[in-house]
């Protein structure tokens, strides 16, 4: 009985998903053509296959973006609780920033952010 509200939430969410798919199937376009099925690339005709391999460099930059993005997300709760934590929070945040900067300068030295 404790989890009844969660069950209701999942049922409502699932119902909305099923309803969205059904409405899309009913009201969606019915006349596919070669032009409509072509991938859109800024008005240009597509060249080559969409199944092309990306270099590892692309994934490294993406992972670095996620790391630095999450770093900024950790500062929000720190800023909210700063008055309660006092000087301790300042030194912890400074230590965190220094560690992240060490990693950043390491990746700069390795040349991960250089596009070749």
UniProtKB/TrEMBL annotation:
Identify which top EC class this enzyme belongs to. translocase
Q: Which GO terms describe its molecular function?
A: NADH dehydrogenase (quinone) (non-electrogenic) activity; NADH dehydrogenase (ubiquinone) activity; quinone binding
Q: Which residues cross the membrane?
A: 6-28, 58-79, 85-107
Q: Which UniProt keywords apply?
A: Cell membrane, Membrane, NAD, Quinone, Translocase, Transmembrane, Transmembrane helix, Transport
Q: Does the keyword Membrane apply?
A: yes
Cellular compartments per GO CC: NADH dehydrogenase complex; plasma membrane
User: Where is the protein situated, by its record's location annotation?
Assistant: Cell membrane; Membrane
State the EC number(s). 7.1.1.-
Q: Which reaction does it catalyse?
A: a quinone + NADH + 5 H(+)(in) = a quinol + NAD(+) + 4 H(+)(out)
What coarse category fits the chief subcellular location reported for this protein? membrane
Q: How does the record classify its membrane topology?
A: Multi-pass membrane protein
Q: Which family does it belong to?
A: Belongs to the complex I subunit 3 family.
Q: How does it assemble?
A: NDH-1 is composed of 15 different subunits. Subunits NuoA, H, J, K, L, M, N constitute the membrane sector of the complex.
Function field: NDH-1 shuttles electrons from NADH, via FMN and iron-sulfur (Fe-S) centers, to quinones in the respiratory chain. The immediate electron acceptor for the enzyme in this species is believed to be a menaquinone. Couples the redox reaction to proton translocation (for every two electrons transferred, four hydrogen ions are translocated across the cytoplasmic membrane), and thus conserves the redox energy in a proton gradient.
The entry's protein name is NADH-quinone oxidoreductase subunit A
Q: State the organism of origin.
A: Deinococcus cellulosilyticus (strain DSM 18568 / NBRC 106333 / KACC 11606 / 5516J-15)
